[in-house]
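note to self — DONT lose this again. spent like an hour looking for the file last time. sequence + predicted structure for the chain T wanted, 311 res
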Amino acid sequence: MASYLTNGVTRWDETEAEQNAASLKVLSSIRCDQLLTRSPQNTQLSFHDCNAPSQFYMLRYHRDRMLAAVNELGWIEARSFLEGHSGVVRLKQVLQDHLTDSYNSAQLSQPLKLRITINSGGHTSVTSTSLPSLPLSSLYFSHFPPTLSQLPPSLDHPTSDRSWRIFVSPVPVSPSLFTRHKTTERAVYDKARSLIPTTPQGELHDNVLSEILVVNHHGEVMEGSITTPYFWRRGRWVTPPASAGGNTGTTRRFALEAGLCVEETVMRQSVAEGEAIWLSNGARGWGWGEIEKLEGRGSDGSIGTSPIRHA
């Protein structure tokens, strides 16, 4: 499945999308962490009607996002696998079977990223990679800890270590089903991530990751390529609305329902170099980073600097 540029905007080849429907899969990436069994919040977000602790991060929210995707795609068999309470149970069992087949009990003390996919026929597949350990406070909290956006000038560092370096893509994206939902069709996001500059060895700590924010053809920030972003605007934290065309991720849903943020349009021109923002995703929880200047291709394909505002 391919994307292409029209007047500087990345669009999807819908004809090719239909031709490749057989290989398309809906996916979600879930954190598996024994520490989560100590979290009452995670227990609540695992099942509707039981209090069994879960090692899977926001399991029910992952099922819900996958179900929304297969519904829009019209995948009847996949919907039958995922819907209802039994769908959450089946999803949990698939994840648990993968752990049983792939790891011993000692290895399961290490947090894992489980990447689960489901195709139109309702068949699932799971792969996994290791993740760094995190405190529960990086996975669940009642408010965003202060960052540079809120601290007085006399305090020149946030209360937690920086975990992301963040750029803004200069190539606008046309929203589609494949940006609204997380699927194996990732061409737009792969293209955006290809613009991230290589970090010189030793410049940043190994745990600092790179992210690039994706912008639609109206100049609205949609999302990050692998995260949901949160911006400090007018005395509150905001995240781009679903109408901008991005994924409605699991941690984003939690943040909105918990009142940690509100939806608000964030224009690309309002994002300042050096601005500190929060990011979240379903495998790594929450972390913060700063917007950096990106030297790369402009929306017309030319080489130039991403036009972000200087603080």
